Amino acid sequence: MRNWERALSVLEALCERGQAAEHGWTLDTELLPSHQQQVNALESQSLVELAGWEDRAELSALEGRPVRWAARLTPYGHDTLAYGQSRPRAEPSPGEAGPDRQVVELIPSQMAALRVFVGLADQLRVPPADGLAEQVRAASCDHGIKRWRLYLTPEQMDSVAYGLWLHRMTGSAAEANRFGREYGVVHSPARAE
Asked: Is 27 left (phi over 0), alpha (psi -120 to 50) or beta?
């Protein structure tokens, strides 16, 4: 397990135990000593707050026993955990793309239009296909050729074509035209009905 994975694991444990406790702290009896050492390291990065003397005294009174150590997430720790749980995952290699997925490489303007499309999902009557937002979030950029790489199902390909059609209808046709040329998928309202 890499250092950042270990750190996220400890942040998750602190979050879960802190949420389960009314006071929001994770106590000395709830974490292994190795995790406590990791928490001490995370404190130096301002991701975790260790309880001071006064907080430990209050916790001891609540628990009915001496509390020697307690920790909780700081706002930075909370945000790091939220980002870590949602961050783009490593892309699968082309061999792992799966038989139902096609590798798609989009130029930056196509990717920008696609981000707008998936960002409007809750406002659209024809929302993006299932999983498309996750693919957009997990897309990686090959900076050498300036292309964003996604692994899309046929339904997601159609959805991308629809998003680029919306972009065409409100300004630029270049992105939809390029997608149609390269992948043979074009949205047409007449065919969609």
From this structure: beta
